Amino acid sequence: MALLEVRDLSVRFVRKSEPTVSAVDGVSFDVHPGSTVGLVGESGCGKSVTSLAIMGLLPGRGTEVSGSVNLEGSELLRLSQREFDRRRGKDLGMVFQDPLTSLNPVVPIGLQVSEVIERHRGLSRRDASREAARLLDRVGIPDPDRRLKEYSHQLSGGMRQRALIAMALACEPRLLIADEPTTALDVTIQAQILTLLKELVAETGTALIMITHDLGVVAGMCDEVNVLYAGRIVERAQRHELFSRPRHPYTAGLMASVPRLDSPRGQRLAPIEGSVADNIPWEGGCAFSPRCGNALAVCGERAPELETIEQGRLLRCHNPIGAAELERAHD
Amino acid sequence: MLRYTVRRLGQLLIVTVVLSVLLFGWLRALPGGPVSALLGERATEESRARLVQQLGLDQPLYVQYWKFVQRAITGDFGVSTGVQPGTPAMEVFLQRMPATLELSVLALLLAVAVGIPLGYFAARRQGGWLDNLSITWSLIGVAVPVFFLAFLLKYVFAIEFGVLPASGRQAAGIDATHATGFFVLDGLLTTEWDAAWNALVHLLLPAVALSTIPFAVIFRLTRASVLDVVEEDYVRTARSKGLGAMVVRGRHILRNAMLPVVTTIGLQTGALLSGAVLTEQVFNIPGIGQALSLGFQRQDYAVLQVVILATAMVYVLVNLLVDLAYAAIDPRLRTR
């Protein structure tokens, strides 16, 4: 049985005097214990909103969340804030994008780690502090006893993200959500943080939802990948399947726009034409069709459904890559 | 931290010296002067000349100033000529200071105790009835002049309903021991509870009148600051850890939101001291505010000098304390 079952999750932002924005539109996926699932897409595709909806951290006013988020048999979307507070940090934790702004500048690092231990594991202030030192040591922060008393401005970017990871994993949650955990870091530090996350996930058996726009991160971390576009999943596949045979033109476009060391000299990168601003609403057809090289007439008229094309593989496309080749093979 | 404190105290010295020069020249440039104030318009030339000489006003200004400085260093600011004729100016100040301090501290406590929680809850329910009501209230607080509000409060609560006393610091009939000059404190120290209560009741109306402007400023700033802070990523992090509402509120929101508020509390001492002049007038409280207005009416150089200098020093000192407190809350200022 899946650890987390997300079914038909939709998030709509309703603002007075502004048109309603559908940020997430019927997203469903499972996360199995100990596995790593990627949510991939460019800015505004709804990947962060999905994670905040799972965590129950979306602003209450002006937000409509529907569908179901089921963690180990309990429905998270029906929890009150008070009930949710007893689960957040304990059963599910989150690591955020920008470690500088995600740490409280006027509270010592040690207290920011130990407060979550105190809260959920019922340890005394002193024991929690000792446990915090052990955790800081585990995430690779040298001299943890001294660091406990320091503040976020005294730590480097990588240290800050390590501290945030220590906080999120302090109670060994069953599920960890990492929202672009390396985007704000130097390239060299990025690799260290990813390695650390990988180690910790393996060690604690925590399932991980990895949210990223970086296909390199996906290739290094994820078992299964969901590609999101304009609030909907457009393709799902196991990592190797996805990289060796991308079927959705958007997935293929993402891969083509990543520079590769083994590409011939002088070959230009192929970015995806246009921007999310060119999207059409899903009601009127495929949102990606204005930017799609494979678009047919039908793409601008009717939105494609998410269909299972083979075992463990889902696709939402009228004219996927490789369709013409397959047809020719059939003839 | 120590070096910083010493430097700031040095600044205090400079402020005091510059202010004393300005004050000295400016008071003497005013038309009239203590002689006419003391003797009246129909005094003879002879008696005028005698008094001028007696007060040393016939000497050049710089000589007068130098003599003033020499005596001021020993704490002697001359003798009051108008407010309490014959009493040393310093004594006049020391007698009256507790009344003003008591009033200002109570007013500031009221402003903080009401302004900060109200600012927090107004922000958390932005656009709700509490928010709108508090904003309107704080607008009225700033817009209505202190003396008008003081009269209004006095009229309604003291005269129409008669629930609170209209003037003074303590009822005449109460037999109270006055050790420190702070009447509420005296009552508490000597366990004369009725005296302490009576003094507190007398302070209530003037303190409410005096607190309106500081309250409005503190409320507004707290509200704006909380609105900013709740949007911060670290508040989201705190909530992602499932900390209880109290911890998120106190440790993660308020602690950050208080930083600008603390600074403004220091700046409000200015508003308190100037407001005290008017409030003490309306409620007939014998404090330094009243001494200041009497001093101007009667051209009492000695009292004016000591009161204005001391007030300025209090203002600078309070703001030094506030800056030190700021560093205590914000670790980013401590390490450099």
Automatic annotation (TrEMBL), chain A:
InterPro entries: AAA+_ATPase, ABC_Ni/Peptide_Import, ABC_transporter-like_ATP-bd, ABC_transporter-like_CS, Oligopep_ABC_C, P-loop_NTPase. Pfam families: ABC_tran (PF00005), oligo_HPY (PF08352). It is found in: Cell membrane. One of its GO terms (cellular component) is plasma membrane. One of its GO terms (biological process) is peptide transport. Residues 6-255 form the ABC transporter domain. One of its GO terms (molecular function) is ATP hydrolysis activity. It comes from the Bacteria. It is a peripheral membrane protein. Its main location: membrane. Belongs to the ABC transporter superfamily. This is Peptide/nickel transport system ATP-binding protein. The lineage of its organism: Bacteria, Bacillati, Actinomycetota, Actinomycetes, Actinopolysporales.
From TrEMBL, chain B:
One of its GO terms (biological process) is transmembrane transport. It is a multi-pass membrane protein. It comes from the Bacteria. Keywords: Cell membrane, Membrane, Transmembrane, Transmembrane helix, Transport. One of its GO terms (cellular component) is plasma membrane. Residues 97-326 form the ABC transmembrane type-1 domain. The chain crosses the membrane at residues 12-29, 103-123, 135-157, 195-219, 257-278, 302-329. SUPFAM superfamilies: MetI-like. It is found in: Cell membrane. It holds the Pfam family BPD_transp_1_N. The keyword tRNA processing does not apply. The keyword Transport applies. Belongs to the binding-protein-dependent transport system permease family. This is Peptide/nickel transport system permease protein. It comes from Actinopolyspora alba.
